[in-house]
Design brief:
290 residues, alpha/beta, Purple Acid Phosphatase, chain A, domain 2, 5 helices, 12 strands, globular
C-alpha cells in the first residue's frame, strides 16, 4: 500500500507539472541550415505554429507579442493559431508586431473550427479524424494576417528578403483534407524555393520535394513525450523521430529538408505538455558552400 501511495503521488506531481508548469514554459529553439544560394546574406526566420490561443491565455499572448524583438527577417506561420471560438482578436493582437514584418502563413484545421473533446489514448492507435466543431471567424483571421503576410493556402508566392528572391508553395491543411496538391506551381525566376504546410504528411513532403526547405507544424512535437523529448505519436504518418526539428528527405523530385515546429499550445481539452516544452523556432538560413 505504501508504494501505491508513492506512485499515486508521483503521478499527481507529473500531472501538475505537465498541466500547470511545462505547458507555460515557452521557449525559442535556435538552429541553422545552409539552403540559400552561394553568396546570399543569412536570413533569420521565425517559425511559429500551433498557438491554439484562448482568450484567457494572457501570458502566452504577452510572450508572442514580444517575439519581434528577436530581429527577425521573415516569419513563417504554419497554422492552428486559434484554440477557442472567441480567440480571433486576441490572437491578432498578440501577432500584430510580427504581422508588421515580412511573412507567410497557411491554416490548420483549428483556424476553421473550434476544438472538441477527443480521447487522448486514441492518438496511440491512428491519427485523429477531422470532426468539425463550431465554425470560427476564419475570414476575420485571414483578413488580419493578410495585412502583412502572404496567404499560401493552396497558393504560391514570392518575397525578396535581404536581396534573395524566395519563392513559396503552400497547402491548406492536409490533415483536414483541404490541400489541393495539384493547384500550386513554383514562381519563376526565384533564387530559392520553400514549402509551407500545416501537417507534415509524407505526401506533402513528396509534392514539395523540389523545395530546399519545408516548414510544418501540427505534431506538437508529440506533446506528451518520453524522457529526452522522444515523441510517441505525430498525429500523421510522419515518423515519431521526426516530430520536431530538422530532418533530411529524399523524394522523387529531389532532396529536401523538413523543419517541424512543436508549437506553442495545446487543445483546451488536453492542456498538458510533458518532456516537450512549447516552442517557436528561430532558424538562421545560411548560404551553401557550393
Amino acid at each position: 500500500m505504501f508504494w501505491l501511495w508513492i506512485l499515486l503521488g508521483l503521478g499527481a506531481l507529473v500531472l501538475v507539472w505537465a498541466a500547470l508548469i511545462e505547458r507555460n514554459l515557452f521557449t525559442v529553439k535556435y538552429d541553422s541550415v545552409a539552403v540559400l544560394p552561394k553568396g546570399s546574406a543569412p536570413i533569420r526566420v521565425l517559425h511559429i505554429s500551433d498557438i491554439h490561443m484562448a482568450p484567457w491565455q494572457k501570458r502566452k499572448q504577452s510572450w508572442v507579442s514580444q517575439l519581434s524583438a528577436l530581429k527577425v527577417d521573415l516569419v513563417v506561420d504554419t497554422g492552428d493559431n486559434l484554440g477557442h471560438v472567441n480567440a480571433v482578436q486576441s490572437t491578432l493582437n498578440a501577432l500584430a508586431p510580427l504581422i508588421a514584418l515580412p511573412g507567410v502563413f497557411v491554416n490548420g484545421s483549428n483556424d476553421y473550427h473550434a476544438p472538441g473533446f477527443r480521447n487522448p489514448l486514441s492518438y496511440l492507435i491512428k491519427p485523429s479524424t477531422p470532426t468539425p466543431g463550431k465554425p470560427l471567424d476564419t475570414e476575420k483571421l485571414l483578413s488580419g494576417l493578410e495585412k502583412g503576410w502572404l496567404n499560401l493556402n493552396n497558393r504560391s508566392g514570392e518575397l525578396t528578403i535581404k536581396g534573395t528572391r524566395i519563392g513559396f508553395v503552400g497547402l491548406d491543411d492536409p490533415h483536414d483534407q483541404l490541400a489541393e496538391y495539384d493547384s500550386i506551381q513554383p514562381p519563376k525566376g526565384i533564387d530559392v524555393l520553400f514549402g509551407v504546410a500545416h501537417a507534415p504528411y509524407r505526401r506533402v513532403i513528396e509534392v514539395m520535394g523540389e523545395a530546399e526547405l519545408i516548414f510544418a507544424g501540427h505534431t506538437h512535437g508529440g506533446q506528451v513525450c518520453l524522457p529526452g523529448g522522444r515523441a510517441i505519436v505525430t498525429n500523421c504518418d510522419l515518423p515519431a523521430k521526426n516530430a520536431r526539428g530538422l530532418s533530411g528527405w529524399s523524394t522523387a523530385k529531389g532532396e529536401t529538408i523538413l523543419n517541424v515546429c512543436a508549437g506553442l499550445g495545446t487543445s483546451i481539452f488536453a492542456p498538458v505538455r510533458l518532456f516537450c516544452r512549447p516552442e517557436v523556432r528561430l532558424l538562421t538560413l545560411l548560404p551553401k558552400n557550393y
